């Protein structure tokens, strides 16, 4: 199981979420989940929005916990919106091009989950990708292919709709191949303005996803916590697993749901596969 996080708010240093919390993403990468035999040591990535056109991207196939370059970069840059990911490979090679986030134009994409029986359905899924988009695929993961399928199905114009049509197509192809539960996904997606996150699984169990509560409300609960005073009222964090154990800080996003973190009021909407 991979882990990832997304942040949106006033600019902060990514190290404040990657390294400093008691259950930071780096700490999580060192230990596996109860039903997973390996840690998240198969690479990592950080994608951020800053002063340049489009997002920056830094990825490596080395374990995140031992890479001094990540620590240096995350301590020096400041960003109002970033996505970070630590990888546990599920059958595809450990190499930089297979590390998240994946980037296309203004978009960044991270994923925790898998396409069941991927080798059986991979060729059909690949051939569905828009030929104009196909050269952008640099790796061999099911995650990157999901991103490019969603782009093919209109993600740029309709982000959540593109993800839903991708999910519907993956399920159609998988079940045609005899796969009972083709898809497990929690995804993070951004265009530099909004942060989208969705939680869905074809079967009964969906990987976890959490959204931080209103910073203003949490400050009232924990006025003695100096770290919380630092974050703006607009700050939100989406995580596959909570970074700290503070009651009231995290709200679990239900399966079959998506959230849109944006300036002003955030949105929570149903999420489900659509016919493409």
UniProtKB/TrEMBL annotation:
<dbReference type="InterPro" id="IPR052373">
    <property type="entry name" value="Gamma-glu_amide_hydrolase"/>
</dbReference>
<dbReference type="InterPro" id="IPR017932">
    <property type="entry name" value="GATase_2_dom"/>
</dbReference>
<protein>
    <submittedName>
        <fullName>Class II glutamine amidotransferase</fullName>
    </submittedName>
</protein>
<dbReference type="InterPro" id="IPR026869">
    <property type="entry name" value="EgtC-like"/>
</dbReference>
<feature type="domain" description="Glutamine amidotransferase type-2">
    <location>
        <begin position="2"/>
        <end position="264"/>
    </location>
</feature>
<dbReference type="InterPro" id="IPR029055">
    <property type="entry name" value="Ntn_hydrolases_N"/>
</dbReference>
<dbReference type="Pfam" id="PF13230">
    <property type="entry name" value="GATase_4"/>
</dbReference>
<keyword id="KW-0315">Glutamine amidotransferase</keyword>
